Amino acid sequence: MEKQKAPGSRGKGVMVTSGWRSLLLPQLNRQSLYVYGSEIAVEEECIRQLQSGVLVIHPFSLIRSYYIMCMMAITFLNLIGIPMEIAFLDGVNGLGWEGFNVFSDTLFLIDVALNFRMGIIPEDSEVAILDLKQIRMSYLRSWFIPDVIAAFPIGYILFFADLQYSNEDNPSKANRMMRILMFVRILSLIRLVRVSRLVRFFNEVEKVSNANLEAVRLFFRILSLFMMIFLLCHWNGCIQYFVPMLEEFPADCWVRKENLMNATVSVKYSWGVFRALSQMIALSYGSMDAPTNSVELWIVMVSMISGCMMYTVLVANATTMIANTDPTAKEYKSKMCHLEHYMTFMKLPPELQLRISKYYQARYGGKWFDENDVIDTVSTALKEEMLLAMCSRLLKKVPMFQNQDVHFINAVLLKLSYEVFLEGDVIVRENAPGDRMFFIDHGEVGLEADSFQRDLCDGDYFGEMCVLTKGKHLATARALTDCQCFSLSWLGFQQALVGFPDVRKDLEKLVQLHADQEPNGV
Which residue, 407, 416, 417, 419, is CA-closest to 381? Predict the structure, then answer.
């Protein structure tokens, strides 16, 4: 049998079976890596499934992802079409809609069967359940009964009953068959239980389709929320017309008052949704008259209660989404608010307040975070890689760091501190004691002394002799623009030199060589 690597694998690993069975195996994506931790672990999961020797669809398989998306679309179409069919089509469905009903019922029956071979990821575990006995017991105890009710083949019954009704010539038998058809159509409302499947499919889409990203989860939450609100309004609008139809349109019902008996389906549906929305959002439009009978009274009350529930759910979800959106920006605004109150309380000059506010904007860019806290939460290896990506090009331009041991460079990187200076800030002053050197990441710095003047820009450095000798600065360094710099303190440098005696000797020679010369810095 032909072999291949685990689906989506990029590196060397265990070989697994190719062909159609590979569609049932877990794919290498963000979600599987998040759950299993590595590519090798995903490949081992593929091997575990193959060694089980049974035909099971893995929760992270490719076919499972596409299947969920397809079923979600079919379910949503059913939840829209079934109320429309019962309320407005008057038994004249057309071959296309009846074919869709039969297709949907067939698909939902197949789905019930497939769920007995669908792997499960328990909430309290990261190991997929692939044992058929456990899968069956779990399904029978959870969603089996609602799924069977939702998959009841009403479409087949209606299809054959319509065929029998259309071929019936006896008037009495035709009337009896018409009443049976009406009963079956009302019975078909049990298919609306499929709304529970829509909710379940949305939850599974979040889990399976790389939805460990916050933006994707937020998108699916918003989409599911608005789809449920749409379905609620849609069902209410259909009920507004369906109930008078069951009563054979009494003289005082709203359908006769609006003269909609012979109107088109679109007009009837529009008026039904209009009345539903008017009652749900507590407007007088569409319900100017008081309900004329107890049935209509209950419809109005249910509409008003469902509207209140819709408001509650919408506000609660919107509040949660807003609260969880961009927390760093909210934290920044909170810090700025505290800062403004503090500056006002201390009666700082307006010019100084403005410079402090500009500093916060330049330093954090509207997002509040603590670099030290972020860096301390990752491993030492990742910390070195992060600093290497940000600062290695800066260190390579400094002669005393060129051709040095890579471990020493990594030790120096861990001692760097990020600093921001506004335009016009004096970074260091001439003849002031110095204990730091600076690497300019972005911005321009001007060096001013009695004997020279020079401008530095991205990638340049100054103060290197101060970090070696802890001497005085020979020039004043002033920020010509907003500057983002990394600084290395004398103490941090000495700590980095521990364990590198050869490097220390080379640097001592460099200091001796420049003892009688003007250093390339301040």
Answer: 407
